[in-house]
Amino acid sequence: MAALKGLPITGSSTAQKTDGAAPTGAPGTQRPLEILGNLAEISPGAELGTVSHYDIQPVIDTYANVDGTDLGTVTRKMETIIDKHQAELPAVRTLSCAARARP
């Protein structure tokens, strides 16, 4: 955490000044150096990466990428896995596939 708080932050080298002085980051000028810990309060924590709802029900999204096959094949395999495990869920829970491509 200390290393993150000590991370140096500098202004953009394309910043412009309108008072006639050299722009920040211009050759030969000194840019002010600030550390992240002086600009933000940083603390560890835990939270859901994405909070989603379908209608009013909360859902947990799982994202997957396709490599070496087509999206339709992956979607069919996911549907097979979902069908296999649907009976194991409590009555108030469901699994579903909302892929962008349907087989």
List the helices and strands and how they pair.
Blueprint (H helix, E strand, L loop, with lengths): L1 H4 L2 E3 L22 E3 H4 L12 E3 L2 E3 L11 H15 L18
Antiparallel strand pairs: 1-2, 3-4
Note the total helix count. 3
Q: Tell me the structural class.
A: alpha+beta
Number of domains: 2
N-to-C terminal Cα separation, in Å?
46 Å
- By DSSP, the count of extended strands is 4
Describe the structure.
The chain contains 3 helices and 4 strands. It has 103 residues and is α+β, with helices and mostly antiparallel strands. It has 2 domains: 2-39, no CATH class; 47-103, no CATH class. A hairpin with a 2-residue loop joins strand 3 (52-54) and strand 4 (57-59).
Key words describing this protein structure:
single chain; 103 residues; alpha+beta; 2 domains; 4 strands
In summary, what is this structure?
The chain has 103 residues and is of the alpha+beta class.
